[in-house]
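User: Can you fold this complex?
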Amino acid sequence: MTSRARKFLKDARRVTADLRHRQIIHAALHNYEAARDRRKAAFADWLTARQAAAATKWEAINYLDENLTAFADKLAARGAKVHWASTDRQARDIILQIIQDKAARCIVKSKAMTAEEIHLNEALERAGLEVVESDLGEFIVQLRREAPYHIVFPSMHLTRGEIKDLFQSKLGSAPSDNPEELTMVARRVLREKFINAEIGITGANFAIAETGMISITENEGNARLTAALPRTLITLLGIEKILPRLEDLALFLPMLATAGAGQPMSGYNTLYGGPRQPDESDGPVEFHVVLLDNQRTRLLADTEQRDALHCIRCGACLNVCPIFRHVGGHTYGTTYSGPIGSVITPSLRGLQDWKHLSSASSLCGACTEACPVKIDLHHHLLHNRRNAIAKRLSYLEQFAYDVFTAIVNHPVLWSLGKKAGRLLQPLHRSIQGGPLDPLRSWTRTRDLPPLAKPSFREWWRKRK
Amino acid sequence: MTHRGAALTMRGNRMTITLFIPCFVDAFYPRAGISMVQILERLGHKIVCPKALVCCGQPAFNSGYWEEARPVALKTLETLRNAEAVVVGSGSCGAMVKKFYPELFSGTRHAELARQVAARTWEFSDFLVNKLGVTDLDARFPAKVTFHDGCHGLRELNLKQPPRALLAEVRDLELIEMGEAETCCGFGGTFAAKFPMISAAMGETKCASALETGAAYLVSNDMSCLMHLQGLLSRQGAKIKILHLAEVLAQQ
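Assistant: Here's the predicted assembly.
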């Protein structure tokens, strides 16, 4: 077992036993489910919408080369500088270079999972720069020096009381757990940062090939301030964010808001097409767009799992995932948690190191059912398991399955096995759940049913 | 045509049904299998239970050991080669034969056989409702029950309606749906043993939802889920009892 798998098990053991955590997450997601179902009902036909979205993303990804160059050319024609980063390191270096060329110190950032993926904040801080997260949830987890808990709701694991204590100790605010007052505390801090920032960094929700525009959808207006106030704007995005046409947003914006947060539309939906133009009075003077590969082309080359690049990072699969709900976002130890994270992390960061995430699933398929762009998530978990075994199998497990095959393929052995089991059963009861119990992984938490006498097959034989 | 009318015409059309009783039903829950035999025979069909049918091979398959799963699956396929209709007594094993065998054998010389057998295979409730067109089995079960949708049956085989259509015709039965009916119980085959803490936590959530209904019975068309849930419920000392759908439908 790898050290990552051991850590996953250890953290999973702790969080699954934390009933307070379970209650917080269930309550939050219960509210989400109700809102999502209300919004889904507003679509004429949600299934058809999903089908259309999947087809559009299929087109975007299967013609990624053409779409990306069209996007980059259009954007560059309006004066934006487009950078291509193959790796996380290249992306960090490009961004750091832009900042250092400006001799800038203060950076304000809006929410970007790609920035989490390349550990951008750590790199900027190591270079002595100040970077402030302006999304409220991200601002909170940044104050806690913690990774986002969820790709859409970064601080959903915290209660108002915990946020009150955090603001009080880190920001010296007056104690209040009133959401509006807490928001005003963050707002006062952040407004100052927006005004002083020399660089703004954003992510992107969609990149429109047809017009060379970045689409950002948000609820707090912080991305607009991040993109509009500082003199230099840097947008970091994965190459899979592409959509072929501007009109595709008519489906994707409401779909993302519905699947992700149970909203008809997010509060602010903005398109960014380049730096300040000669006839414009505001906006960034320089606009840099960093397109990140970081192993996405490996998924692109995988015909079986290519559809994982359809992902619009709505978080719907996390929200419905019973594993996510019980182990929590941090237990995954990845930037992208939940089903989509378990599917893509082995491709992005190494199959052998992250295969345990694909095993940590009951393959229930709730994720696949929820995915607005119809990624075959739970079957890809199954494929990851197969791929991991093909590359490196466990001889012990293989032996176990060879024994299993021999038994079930020989009905006589199967009969004998059941009889032996019945004989050993009373003995087993005395050690059940204890350290000597070979079935402890089952019996520690659950009773084992007694082997029936007669079994079905014995009954059937006698009857005939 | 009403379901009842359809049932009468189908009764005249006698089929030979190969009943695939999964390994864990055979070993732990024979009454579920016996009930299926009784129901199908009562409808006038001939039942065969080939000795060679033990397991579908899903544990190895789901763990990624496809090479090890193939000999088990192949033995099953060959046993079912000439079957007129195959009824599987579990949504999960049914999904294995119907949906995953074609994938497991894709590109091999057994691909066509896998496809043919899959097309003739039905999960028990699906067979009754959608193949035979029967929903009223003249059953009576005076109790409050709640129904758990096994994930494989629900999402791989799309079996939301058949069990409910059958339960709706059972006299004196009151079905009380639980809030988490479609939420995974946490069994997941080898997952239950590899990640017992997650599996048990999921099971606790499921049990709480089932208990909230006040039902006396927790019913499902997947005994594997119920085995896991019963294991938790008996530790909790809960009074609710588990039953396979077939056991309810066999009550007269």
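The mean pLDDT of chain A is 96. Chain A touches chain B through 61 residues (CB under 8 Å).
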